[in-house]
Amino acid sequence: MNIILETQRLILREFLEADAENMFQLNRDPEVVQYTGDDPFLSVEDAKSFIQHYDKYKKFGYGRWTILLKDTNEYLGWCGLSYNVDTNETDLGFRLLKKNWNKGFATEAAKHCLDYGF
Length: 118
Description:
Layout: E1 3-6, E2 10-13, H1 20-27, H2 30-33, H3 44-52, H4 56-60, E3 64-69, E4 75-84, E5 89-96, H5 105-117
Antiparallel strand pairs: 1-2, 2-3, 3-4, 4-5
């Protein structure tokens, strides 16, 4: 497991194929993807293919990272940085399973991702 960041409660690590089922569930929730402009994955296999072809770590040295609850290794969602070649800018993004909303996980992960970026 390639851990990128650790916070008091969270582990952020690179995506693994084992995340495919969770990423599929995350992206099929209309409220989670409501403002992203992304289409949901059509299957777990589509999510797995996305992970297999995710090349941001190698290309840019950073990307989006899986968020795990440190105490249990429970999948919470993802957070991280994404470089946009067209605008030469990096954005911060995150998605969490709805059951993990309003618990401060996104704020905690995002703060550490920003610190990492700077």
